[in-house]
Amino acid sequence: MRVEDILRRKGTRIGTVRINETVETALRLLKAENTGALVVKDVCRTEGNTVVGVISERDIVRGLTDRGPGILSLPVTAVMSNHPVCCAPGDSVRRVLQLMDEHTIRHIPVLDGASLVGVVSVRDLIKAQLDAAPPDADPGEAASYPVAAAQ
């Protein structure tokens, strides 16, 4: 399964925030979009809508913990992750999971060349795997997995 398959199923709605918006605005957008991260875009550059970062709930919590509530009035650049890890529509789910694990992130922007075409989250990947899995023999029964005995 590829990223493009996931985007086709979920749609290409992308939560974004402009680079000059405040952290408080980003928080409100996170709530409104019911997501854990927003792609930060610079709409002022001559090349158009350029992805410049990602701001996540974790970034904001770190900022609040380290610097206090004053960060809410600062631009998102104060707490966003610069140089975001991105993937391409043709990347495999396995590759995206490896990137998420390697960089300890839960959301990855999807770029087709320089164009932002979507965002893939851990939840999207789990849903795709569940949809692709064969159904349980008894849907009412919870799956059980053997546990190795303690030595």
UniProtKB/TrEMBL annotation:
<keyword id="KW-0129">CBS domain</keyword>
<protein>
    <submittedName>
        <fullName>CBS domain-containing protein</fullName>
    </submittedName>
</protein>
<dbReference type="InterPro" id="IPR044725">
    <property type="entry name" value="CBSX3_CBS_dom"/>
</dbReference>
<feature type="domain" description="CBS">
    <location>
        <begin position="80"/>
        <end position="135"/>
    </location>
</feature>
<dbReference type="InterPro" id="IPR000644">
    <property type="entry name" value="CBS_dom"/>
</dbReference>
<dbReference type="InterPro" id="IPR051257">
    <property type="entry name" value="Diverse_CBS-Domain"/>
</dbReference>
<dbReference type="InterPro" id="IPR046342">
    <property type="entry name" value="CBS_dom_sf"/>
</dbReference>
<dbReference type="Pfam" id="PF00571">
    <property type="entry name" value="CBS"/>
</dbReference>
<feature type="domain" description="CBS">
    <location>
        <begin position="7"/>
        <end position="70"/>
    </location>
</feature>
